[in-house]
User: What shape does this take?
Amino acid sequence: MCGIVGYVGSKKASEILIDGLKRLEYRGYDSCGLATITDGSLKVVKSINRIESLENDANHLEGCIGIGHTRWATHGEVSIENAHPHVSQDGKFAVVHNGIIENYTELKKMLLEKGFTFYSETDSEVIPNLISLYYEGNLLKAVKRATDDLIGSYALGIMCVEQPDVLVATKNNSPLVVGKGEGENFIASDFGAILKYTNDFAILEDREFAVISKDEVSFYTKGLESAFYSFIKLDTNVDDMEKSGFAHYMLKEIHEEPNTVQKIIKEYLHSSKGSMKFQIEKHDIKKVEHLYIVACGTAMHAGLYAKCLFEKLARIPVTVEVASEFRYQNPILRKEDMVIFISQSGETADTLASLALVKDKNIPFISIVNVKESTMDRLSDNVLYTKAGTEVAVASTKAYIAQTTLLALLAIYFATIKKSYDEDELKTLVEEIEMLPSKLERILDNEEKAIPYAQMLLQDQSIYYVGRGMDYYLALEAALKLKEISYIHAEAMPFGELKHGTIALIEKGTDVVVFANSPALWEKTLSNIKEVEARGARVFIVTTMRDLQDVENYDILVLPEVHELLAPILAIVPLQLLSYHIACMKNLDVDKPRNLAKSVTVE
Ligand code: F6R
Assistant: This one.
């Protein structure tokens, strides 16, 4: 989604802003821009293409203070006029805005009545004009009065030509951090934008303000009282933001999966004792009668995988909810329930709103988060980190592997506490988890096996991904990966359900990818295969099982053998690779697929 970076210091601001914007690219955007103050006037450059296209014009901008933005269109098409920064009608104020102003229509009407004119279709353009309306020589006070009028979410970076040495920043329900350097200071919507320059961060609270000059950073409360903020250091690795020789971040991140699983094992498992290091009160676990898992997209698919494990091992009924639905459902939550939130970014608006709802009702919850110091991390008392490192590619890969591995360990932990499953079986499962990294390595060593399959599927308009039991949830994630980066339609179905309607679409040459990892369900799966084959489907089987009978007619990819409850953690990997190679063959922008954003910070 949108990204913000701001700089004040003694270096050329435009260079730092361009660098910061490039580091925000992965979040997804469709236009970009930046502004600096030079010789007492605002200079603005914008582009509806990639950041590189901005570089030339930006290079001509002098000035040691500036704000930059990547826009992901919400109000108004992708155009130069709608791109940020937005400038007030009097040319004095420049603003970059992340979020959505819900009452902008009324505010715009009021401003129009007062004689203001507008050049864009955005909600954001009201903000510099409101600040201009209220400005009486003090930028901070004008920003405060303007934001008092705003309903909605925002993170703002603001400059004024009459105060050319300061940036003002504020936020509400949209993240913004302040970075402190030596003789230079920064603002950003994402640590990664400025991590190269500083590792001293303050995280701005809702409706509070930061005033930033070259040598000073001051914070203010909602009422403009002086506020104390402590600065923190991150243990994020700047190398995570590099491609390290891989053609794309997505490929690099898939190759990091064995190490990702290893890190989870190290973090949560006492190897020698076979016990786990989760710090969740045993009596809290014992009293859980119903689990809700709430998340979006890939994280929600990890939740569906976990449902199978918690139900089978811990014998706890689990409801998995898409966060955008959960938040408006008035969910029936009782004290005996527990909620698990899952998010890579920790900034997904719908997941955060669901968390706020659960917190408000005082229902116990656990958050599974990848990004430390994200909003979700800071709102949660019980956080389990997925430790996958920065995931830059928009399509989530290593984070899913981390989420599913962590959830598998957590389900085993719940089962151990509840004594709901055979102890030796649980031990075997833990041992199998410890073997996952080497099995993942083996799959990655055979990466080229994905290429002929990619060639075969490349021209498809639509592909079916099917499976029974937990293989259906795996199919959902595999289909999502294909859709988002290769733009081929993929539909995931529970295999047994196909004949209740969708089979009408199967005809000669339709490609059907079958996940088959459950020995108990194999006979049924084979019958379903015969049904689609009889209608002309071309069948591809992905399996961790050995010696399957009666499969000579089909293309079959046999993966390393693994406990069937862990199969999805392995079996998704060749499908991630398949999607990746199809997207490459189609010459698509693998890391930044169209219309998508890395963290979805608006509803
Ligand atoms: C798909 C993908 C998205 C995210 C979803 C939730 O590859 O990345 O579906 O999984 O937007 O994001 P987080 O996990 O950051 O809450």
The chain has a mean pLDDT of 94. Residues 296-299, 343-345, 348, 351, 395-396, 480, 484, 599-600 surround fructose -6-phosphate (CB under 6 Å). The chain has three domains: 3-234, 240-445, 447-592.
